[in-house]
Design brief:
381 residues, mainly alpha, four-stranded mixed beta sheet, 4 strands, 55% helix, globular
């Protein structure tokens, strides 16, 4: 009897230990299983959140579209050809989020013109008849239904080259001789004035129409330098006929014998009675008449107004909107050439009386306001 009791105790103790170990092992298994379920649950929640984030059109899809539109066209593209899926072909009207500012800028420019044209106080400065003078300024590309109004001293030579190529007179811009660009008998650019009244109206209503502007005072400086300082040899009348006429009428110091000065030019342009002299000069004055007189922006509904100061963006946009960006490119723009130069403007107007500058601004005020150029208070006050 003494031997059986210890043995039974040992067996009982061993059984309890086995039972405890089994329970502890099961407890750890349940904990591990619960942890696995928790991890799976958290992963499913995170997955759902990530999916919802990627489906947010403002957060991802537009950026994805931008990457596609800018990266894909170069792959496997043939010269002069662009490949896009049908639903993503660029139209110039629907752009990615990073470029939405572009069409908004052009719409705002057109809206500004409409608002200024409705301003009765500026009617004399913003309205003009669509006369033969205006129609002579507008060049026609019937093949691609484009009208371009020429505004001298705003990079128009390059745009004329683009139209010359589109009209088929020359195969490329590089092959156009410089002396042909402005020779309207050889460059293949018909003027709108050469068509019948009915044909003119049809083109004005249905064609893509554009022109380019720049700061009005900086444009006048460019015109003065080009026609009176540099004076190309094939236009001698500016120095030998027009300059003496301005000097005789507008030079204050009659003993001054130097050639025409910018001050003489400003006084001539600011004279409310300047037209009698303009009539003597004839068509040569197109280089410094207002944009209003040249292109009649309140009477003709233009499709796009480009600005010389933003030409790097405006030129490709205009080509795309006109549907010709796959046919021709705007010539390379030298760096910095289109930037507004306030220092240059101040230097040219230095020493000119405030009265003469104010009279000049009064004549060109319509151009400043129609196209959103800031009033040059630094010169006027």
């Amino acid at each position: 009897m003494k031997n059986t009791h210890p043995q039974g105790s040992v067996q009982t103790l061993a059984g309890r230990i086995t039972e405890w170990l089994t329970f502890d092992n099961m407890h750890h298994q349940w904990l591990l299983l619960a942890a696995c379920f928790w991890v799976i649950f958290m992963f499913m929640v995170a997955s759902k959140f990530i999916t919802l984030t990627f489906k947010d059109p403002d957060a991802y899809s537009t950026k994805q579209e931008f990457l596609f539109l800018t990266a894909v066209p170069d792959a496997g593209k043939l010269p002069g050809e662009k490949h896009f899926p049908e639903e993503l072909k660029p139209t110039g009207k629907v752009l990615s989020d990073s470029r939405l500012v572009q069409p908004l800028v052009y719409m705002e420019r057109l809206e500004l013109i409409r608002n200024v044209c409705r301003d009765e106080a500026l009617k004399n400065l913003s309205h003009t008849a669509v006369s033969k003078f205006v129609l002579d300024r507008i060049f026609v590309c019937d093949k691609h239904k484009i009208l371009f109004c020429q505004t001298p001293k705003v990079g128009n030579t390059q745009w004329k080259k683009v139209l010359i190529v589109l009209n088929g007179a020359f195969p490329s811009i590089e092959e156009i001789p410089e002396n042909v660009v402005h020779d309207h008998e050889k460059n293949g650019l018909p003027r709108l004035s050469s068509f019948s009244d009915a044909e003119i109206q049809t083109r004005l209503k249905t064609y893509f129409k554009f022109f380019i502007v720049r700061d009005p005072f900086e444009r006048l400086i460019s015109a003065f330098k080009d026609k009176f300082v540099h004076n190309p040899r094939f236009e001698p009348w500016y120095r030998h006929e027009i300059a003496p006429g301005i000097i005789r009428k507008y030079r204050r110091n009659r003993t001054e014998t130097r050639g025409i000065q910018f001050e003489d030019f400003v006084r001539y342009l600011g004279d409310p009675n300047h037209r009698w002299l303009d009539l003597q000069f004839g068509d040569h004055i197109i280089h410094w008449v207002t944009y209003v007189e040249l292109c009649a922006p309140c009477e003709i509904k233009y499709s796009v107004i480009g600005h010389h100061e933003t030409l790097e963006d405006d030129a490709p946009y205009i080509l795309k909107e006109a549907g010709i960006d796959h046919l021709v490119s705007y010539p390379t723009i030298p760096p910095g050439i289109t930037v507004y130069n306030r220092t240059k403007v101040e230097r040219y107007f230095l020493g000119i009386s405030k009265r003469d500058i104010r009279r000049l601004y009064a004549r060109f005020e319509g151009d400043f306001k129609l196209f959103g150029y800031q009033k040059p208070d630094f010169l006027l006050n």
